Amino acid sequence: MAREFENCLQCNKKLVGRDDQKYCDLKCKNEYHRKNKTNLEEAQERIIKILKRNQQVLKDVLGEKNSMSIDMDKLIAQGLTMTT
């Protein structure tokens, strides 16, 4: 069976041992997963912040109404964000 990864995903050292090995040791494995978890959490926080801001913009624009038609440019001018 061919080796899937030639080098450690964290430190890029040459892997020796099992063919399905991805990390050179437990320290590299833990650092790799901790780094990726942190990146995911930061992305989630950024998205939640955008969603909360968008929700407030929509509440401000709608007021007491349940629905209405409004130009997207006006919503964007009010602070609505369409991308992350």
Range of strand content: under 5%
Percent helix: 40-55%
Q: What's the number of extended β-strand segments?
A: 0
Cα Rg: 23 Å
How are helices and strands ordered from N to C? HH
Describe the largest sheet: none
Write down the overall mean pLDDT.
Answer: 90
Shape: rod-shaped
Unreliable residue stretches: none
Distance between the termini: 41 Å
Note the total helix count. Answer: 2
- Class of secondary structure makeup: mainly alpha
Give structural notes.
With 84 residues, the chain is an all-alpha fold. The protein contains two helices and no strands. The chain has helices spanning 26-62, 72-78. The radius of gyration is 23 Å and the shape is rod-shaped. The mean pLDDT is 90.
Strand and helix layout:
Layout: H1 26-62, H2 72-78
Structure described in brief:
By secondary structure, the protein is an all-alpha fold. It contains two helices and no strands.
Key descriptive features of the protein:
84 residues, mainly alpha, rod-shaped
